[in-house]
Design goal:
Structural class of chain B: mainly alpha
Helix content of chain A: over 70%
Largest sheet of chain A: none
Helix content of chain B: 55-70%
Number of strands of chain A: 0
Oligomer: heterodimer
Distance between the termini of chain B: 34 Å
Strand content of chain A: under 5%
Chain lengths: ~120, ~150
């Protein structure tokens, strides 16, 4: 797997979490800029999904198996859009906090993805 | 027309009816949803690919998934009946986490592989312990006063 991308995505997700956490702290719902942030993170996740599929197609094998690997990649992509939608239906600080939760989950999934691929090996 | 107020729009007091699925409840639903997906997919993979390795652990993970799914659905549905059902399930969940957590510590040999609730959910940052506690608090509170 592409380690720099994994790290970038994890950092971006944590930044998004901090940003929305700040909004929640100030008792504010998510705003347009937050959604742009979510879009950026989701875009990175999509890139990761494509990179992951390409790597699999090239015959590289994740340590924990391709099925789990792909499931996690899809989970990563779904994470932020889902909490983004929830925050649209909950226009309070609790909506912002929900995005924080989703972004943190995404960061944790990156750590798991790294393990599933088999650490830094295999490109 | 002039609209001099600088407040409101988004700071308006949100939960008018104060259902169990608004405000903090929304965050709770999301967390339960995430854990439902996590536990369900985890146990599905483990049960279908290597059931015999640690049958007890995998079945317990599946049980956890069912409990999470039920609570998620109840929270989404809202209403008094769903609140009571969710309350019962949160208590059940807490009991499950504590029982399985203790069990895995006392008799590790019965668990060649981890469950979602192993070591009180340590593998999940202990969220499995905090989730039912938060749920119980939120659902009981929802009963006493309609607005948080």
């Amino acid at each position: 797997m592409l380690t720099p991308l994994t790290v970038t995505l994890a950092v971006a997700a944590l930044l998004l979490a901090a940003w929305c956490g700040w909004a929640a702290y100030r008792d504010q719902p998510t705003k347009d800029w937050h959604f742009i942030g979510m879009a950026v993170v989701t875009l990175l996740a999509l890139v990761q999904l494509v990179v992951g599929i390409v790597q699999l197609a090239q015959g590289r094998d994740p340590a924990d198996g391709a099925v789990i690997f792909i499931s996690y990649l899809i989970g990563v992509v779904a994470c932020v859009p889902v909490v983004g939608l929830v925050s649209l239906t909950e226009r309070t600080k609790w909506g912002s906090l929900t995005v924080v939760a989703g972004a943190v989950v995404l960061a944790v999934l990156q750590v798991r993805l790294y393990d599933i691929w088999g650490g830094g090996t295999g490109a | 027309m002039p609209e001099p107020t600088t407040v409101d729009v988004e700071t308006a007091p949100a939960p008018r009816r104060g259902g169990i699925n608004t405000g903090p409840g929304k965050l709770l639903v999301t967390l339960y949803g995430i854990f439902t997906v996590g536990a369900a997919s985890r146990s599905a993979v483990q049960l279908s690919t290597r059931f015999h390795e640690a049958p007890l652990a995998y079945i317990l993970s599946a049980v956890a998934a069912v409990v999470y799914a039920f609570i998620t659905l109840s929270l989404v549905r809202g209403g008094e009946g769903a609140r009571k059902a969710a309350l019962t399930c949160c208590a059940l969940e807490l009991a499950g986490v504590l029982a399985v957590g203790t069990w895995t510590l006392v008799e590790p040999s019965a668990f060649p592989d981890a469950t979602v609730w192993s070591d009180y959910g340590m593998g999940y940052l202990f969220i499995p312990v905090f989730l039912p506690l938060t749920g119980l608090w939120w659902l009981r509170r929802g009963h006493r006063e309609p607005r948080p």
